[in-house]
Amino acid sequence: MDTNSVLDIGLQGLWVAAKLSAPVLITALVVGFAVSLVQSITQIQEVTLSFVPKAIAVGIALLVCGHWMISEMVSFTNEMFARIPQLLGGG
Questions:
Q1: CA–CA gap between residue 59 and residue 8 (Å, rounded)
Q2: From first to last of its 91 residues, what are the pLDDT tens digits of the chain?
Q3: Per the structure, how many domains does the chain have?
Q4: Which among 25, 56, 62, 75 would be 20 to 30 A from 36, CA to CA?
Q5: 26 is in which domain, residue-wise?
């Protein structure tokens, strides 16, 4: 196992992590922005008003994207397990 293999695995791991976290983070960003915009317009500064909608939206995003996220993670894991013989020098 050489440094290129380690860097390739690390890069693939970071890429998968970014793809899997994107739906949740983008949802939280959009909902948080919308709630803060409403708070600034109405001048209501309540902490729970910003937390509860984000939590609900993130839960919905996980329900919608959950199957895709699991299949991406299983695919990545299977690919890593398939590369073990090559990384150990067996073929």
A1: 32
A2: 788 889 999 999 999 999 999 999 999 999 999 999 998 898 888 877 889 999 999 999 999 999 999 999 999 999 999 998 888 886 5
A3: 1
A4: 62
A5: 3-87
